[in-house]
Structure formats: C-alpha cells, structure tokens
C-alpha cells in the first residue's frame, strides 16, 4: 500500500518505489549505511519532501562526503549529517511559502549567506531550489532525482555548498541570542563584513546579527532586512505572547504585532486591525458591517483566481523570468498579479466606495474614523502595510 496523498507529487507505483528505495540504500552504503538521511523516519515511503531532500544531498555531492568524513570523530556523524541536511532543506523551503520571508534564526542565516556568498548567489539558490522541488515532485527514478540535484549543483557550486553547510552547522540548535557569536567565529568573518557592505547593507548588521528580525524578498530582486533595537525585539516577542485588551464591543483584542513607531496590529473575532500610535482597542467599532462584506467578498473572489486571468503583459513578464531560470521571481510576479486582479474585481462589486490609488485602498464613509486596506493574508504583508501606513487607522481585508 502507498500513501493516497503525496502533496501534489507523482504517486509512485510499487515497483518504482522499491527500485528508488534500493538505489537510495546503495547511496547510503558509504555514508553510514541504512537510512543515512533519515528519509524513512516518517514512514516506509519516499514522499515528495523526502525526494527533495535526497536531490539536495545529491546536489551537495562531494562536499557532503567531505563533511561526513570530517565528522568521523563524532559520536554519531550520520545523525549530525542528517540534521544538517534537513535544516538546509527546511530553510530553502521557507522561500517557497506564499510570501517569501525568513524570520528569527533563518533570517540570520539569510544575512550570513548574503555576506559570505553575495546577494546574486542567494537569489540563484532560491530559484534553483524552486526548480529542484518541482522536478523532485514528478521524479520517479533515482536518476531523475540525480538530474534534479545536478541542476541545483550548477547554481550551488562547491564554495557555496561548503559555506552553506558551515553556516547551517553553526546555527543548528542555537537561540537567536547565540547565533551572533557563532557566526562571528566562522572563517573569513571580516571579509564577509566588507562583502555585505558591498551588497548595500551597513557592516554593523553582521556584527549585531542578534537584532535581525526578518528578511523578505521582492520580485525586483531586492532583499529587505528588518533590524530593530533591543526594545523593538522585545516588543516583537511580547506580541507573540498576545497581550490582550478589550475593544468597545467587549470582545478581547489580541495584540499580534507592535511596530517600532508605537503603532500596532490587533486581532478581534477573526478581524485584523492596524492601530496608529495613540489609538487603542477601545476605538474599535462594536460592529463593522461594511468591513465584513468586503472581507467575505475578498475571500470569495480570491478563490476564483487562476492563470487564465493573467494579462498578456503579466504573462510575458512571468515567461521571461522562467526562461532565465528565475522560478522564484516568476512566482512572486504571479502573486502580485493575483492581488491586482482581486482588487479590480472588488471595485466592480463595490463601485460606490471611495477607492484610492495611493494610501489606503478604500476610504471609509464620511464620519468614519477608520479605513480599509486589501492585502494577501501573510505575516510579512501585514507587517509591510503597517510600516507603510503607520499613522492610519484601518482594517485589513485579507485573502
């Protein structure tokens, strides 16, 4: 019997599954034997994420073997190698989420890779990983996985592979407070500082890595690094503990994010609100029928989105990215096109509202103190809109 659902991957027939398992076990003979990468710990089959991890191991190639040999004196070099490989796979996977952003220790790893490898190489790794995952999902043989790994290896290169493994090893099991000293102890740290400055970041970002909060990617090829002082970091951590206050409706409003400027975001009964500095949860309306209508319509419209709604210009832009091998940026352009389409459809449904091209998307009716902003429901987008309109009181209509 085989799993009915394999996360959109090609479902292997029993004979193909057995052959792939046999080839994987031969691969492991010189790397500790048995299930050397821990792919069968969640079951006896190679699922889609297992295939991606195996393809990544094949991409690392000789560098992985060097690492295993270097760990010969460890109590369990195989277990440590497995941990390194899975952490690398998990890190790359963060860039494939609907909104490409890394936070916490993963954000520090992004900054470290930009410092040691350069921003172009890091973007290449994102695009290469997206392509590897797509190929691994449809691969049915070990040779096809090796081919997927070989494509990523061309992007990765030996030096980048070594830097990746060293950085991942340094960060494994660390808290955010511990990653700074760990990275500063790595080879060529001073050179990495200089290289990071050449990428457009101040050199002190590497020195004070503990204060890196998040790194987000844009389709234009830029990486935005959010760095806050100790107070801002403390505020971000407190928001995760969900400080609670009461709104005018009597329903609890949970603080989910506090910006450096004192503005913050709260949730109440599934609604998300942005409160500028000086505005409290007591200022939230007891009910918001218009906002509820917009929210319901936004989700319904977004569920109808498909590639058939792309404009010719958008299709050409996405195709150019794909032809250049920039799969990740192509995905970002598609998400941006989806957002524009959803907004255009909502304008058709609510023609009487005061729609704006700048500032908030919808200005509230006369006498209403708050407004409405449409956005995709991802944490990085919530944070971005809160920073962009720090002084505006608005409800976030997300989809």
Structural summary, described in words:
With 399 residues, the chain is α+β, with helices and mostly antiparallel strands. It folds into two domains: 14-99 and 121-174, no CATH class; 232-398, no CATH class. It has helices spanning 14-28, 48-60, 62-70, 77-94, 104-117, 119-138, 142-171, 176-184, 189-198, 204-207, 230-240, 289-302, 312-323, 327-349, 379-388; strands spanning 101-103, 212-217, 223-227, 244-246, 252-258, 264-268, 271-275, 354-355, 362-363, 371-375, 394-398. The strands form three sheets. Strands 4-5-6-7-11-10 form a six-stranded mixed sheet. Helix 5 crosses helix 6 and helix 5 (104-117) runs parallel beside helix 8 (176-184). The radius of gyration is 24 Å and the shape is globular.
Q: Any chance you could write out the topology, listing elements then pairs?
A:
Blueprint: H1 14-28, H2 48-60, H3 62-70, H4 77-94, E1 101-103, H5 104-117, H6 119-138, H7 142-171, H8 176-184, H9 189-198, H10 204-207, E2 212-217, E3 223-227, H11 230-240, E4 244-246, E5 252-258, E6 264-268, E7 271-275, H12 289-302, H13 312-323, H14 327-349, E8 354-355, E9 362-363, E10 371-375, H15 379-388, E11 394-398
Parallel strand pairs: 10-11
Antiparallel strand pairs: 1-2, 2-3, 4-5, 5-6, 6-7, 7-11, 8-9
Protein name: Lipoprotein
Keywords: Membrane, Transmembrane, Transmembrane helix
Transmembrane segments: 79-98, 104-125
Q: Please provide the ordered H/E string of secondary-structure elements.
A: HHHHEHHHHHHEEHEEEEHHHEEEHE
Oligomeric form of this entry? single chain
Shape: globular
Q: Which structural class do you get from the secondary structure elements?
A: alpha+beta
Number of domains: 2
Radius of gyration: 24 Å
Strand % is 5-15%
Mean pLDDT value:
80
Protein name: Lipoprotein
Organism: Archangium minus
Biased composition (Low complexity): 244-253
Transmembrane segments: 79-98, 104-125
């Amino acid at each position: 019997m085989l799993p009915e659902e394999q996360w959109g991957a090609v479902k292997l027939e029993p004979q193909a599954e057995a052959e792939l398992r046999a080839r994987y076990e031969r691969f492991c003979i010189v790397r500790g034997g048995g299930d050397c990468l821990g792919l069968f710990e969640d079951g006896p089959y190679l699922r889609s994420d297992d295939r991606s991890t195996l393809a990544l191991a094949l991409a690392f190639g000789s560098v992985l073997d060097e690492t295993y040999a270097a760990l010969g004196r460890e109590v369990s070099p195989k277990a440590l190698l497995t941990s390194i490989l899975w952490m690398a796979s998990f890190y790359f996977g963060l860039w494939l989420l609907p909104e490409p952003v890394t936070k916490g220790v993963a954000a520090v790893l992004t900054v470290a890779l930009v410092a040691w490898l350069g921003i172009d190489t890091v973007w290449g790794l994102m695009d290469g990983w997206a392509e590897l995952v797509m190929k691994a999902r449809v691969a049915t043989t070990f040779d096809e996985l090796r081919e997927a790994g070989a494509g990523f290896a061309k992007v990765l290169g030996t030096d980048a592979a070594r830097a990746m493994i060293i950085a991942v090893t340094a960060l494994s099991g660390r808290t955010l407070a511990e990653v700074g000293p760990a990275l500063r102890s790595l080879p060529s740290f001073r050179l990495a500082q200089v290289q990071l400055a050449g990428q457009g970041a101040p050199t002190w970002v590497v020195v004070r890595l503990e204060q890196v909060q998040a790194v987000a990617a844009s389709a234009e090829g830029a990486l935005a690094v959010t760095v806050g002082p100790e107070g801002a970091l403390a505020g971000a951590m407190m928001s995760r503990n969900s400080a609670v206050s009461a709104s005018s409706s009597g329903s609890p409003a949970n603080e989910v994010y506090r910006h450096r400027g004192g503005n913050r975001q709260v949730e109440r009964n599934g609604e998300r609100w942005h409160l500028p500095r000086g505005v409290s949860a007591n200022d939230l309306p007891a009910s918001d029928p218009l906002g509820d209508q917009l929210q319901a319509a936004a989700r319904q419209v977004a569920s109808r989105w498909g590639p058939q709604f792309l404009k010719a210009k958008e299709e050409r832009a996405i195709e150019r990215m794909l032809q250049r091998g920039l799969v990740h940026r192509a995905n970002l352009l598609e998400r941006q096109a989806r957002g524009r389409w959803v907004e255009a459809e909502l304008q058709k449904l609510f023609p009487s509202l005061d729609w704006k091209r700048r500032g908030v998307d919808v200005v509230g009716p006369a006498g209403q103190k708050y407004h409405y902003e449409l956005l995709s429901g991802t944490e990085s987008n919530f944070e971005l809109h809160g920073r962009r309109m720090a002084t505006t009181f608005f409800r976030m209509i997300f989809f």
